[in-house]
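User: I'll paste a sequence; please echo it back and then give the predicted structure.

Assistant: Echoing your sequence first, then the prediction.
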Amino acid sequence: MATNRVKQIHEFGQSIWLDFIDRKIMDSGELQKLIDEDGVRGITSNPAIFEKAISSSSDYDEDIKTLAKEDKSNEDIFYGLAVSDIQRAADLFKPVYEEEDVRGADGYVSLEVSPFLALDAEGTIKQARELWKAVDRDNVMIKIPGTAPGLSAIQTAISEGININVTLLFGLDRYEAVTDAYISGLEARAAAGQPIDGIASVASFFLSRIDVMVDPILDEKGLPELKAQVAIASARKAYEIYKRVFSSERFAKLKELGAKPQRLLWASTSSKNPAIPDTKYVEELIGPNTVDTIPMETLVAFRDHGDAQSRLENDLDKATEILEKLKTAGIDIDDITQKLEDEGIDKFNKPYEKLLAAIETQKKSLETA
């Protein structure tokens, strides 16, 4: 039997998580098959994924009807549906979470706070606590955007023992600030005499969207040879930061108490440009102690023709050189990553608004049915 290409990635120390969830994938046994055959080791969700799941099927109608009778808001109805799905997925991944040699390394399922709270630290931590309590599973991660206001919410959540998936990261300075928020949260928790060995976190660094924004500028500046390379270069530099931060003396003290490093997670890994190979953002960044969350079509593509090799630390000098060339050409990567963050918030707000509207529509049609 031919080796499964997706499963091979795990041999290089990287975990593949699926960037997709709906009821059908669980009901049909397909998710279990992905765990068993492809070695998928976790799941991430976001408002756009749930919007598609809820508005494109009747699988949620009965639950919407029940929750609507309880006079709940559309947002409460959504989280009622989402929590139920996340619990089911978390239970499916529990055996992965409980693997003896790496207990707690994988098997996580992520649920995001409302995108409307992306710039509201207090609202974010309040909802993170509520969702953590509602899901009530050790192997869940609450997703908090890595915005400037999100940093304090991340630190507080970690100090309270909540597993966090930091999402919407594009820039290197912000990524480093996120590692600091994570470590500060662990330090506060340890100082309060609380255990830190059960806490897990990932920092989700978004890839293909960087190239989508930068590539047209490279054409304008006469640097077409750098197209489809800036995201990979940024990710390699992020991994350098990861290695430096988590091999520091500061983290070593926490490691003695059982703390785990906050792994880098590669997100936005589907190619948005047809000229770029559909497995590029997966193949280029396979490496130890990382996670890659991939949509179903990218997983299927990799299973068919992906090439699993450890490449994450290849061409580090070239990565530095690419980012230097941007600077020389007057391309402000910090400005670009801030724009991407703003756009990212908007890209989650829109489907979330659509999702709440779809629940409203379904509520009304079920009332008259």
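The beta strands are 14-18, 42-43, 108-112, 140-145, 164-169, 201-206, 263-267, 290-294. The chain is about 55% helix and 10% strand.
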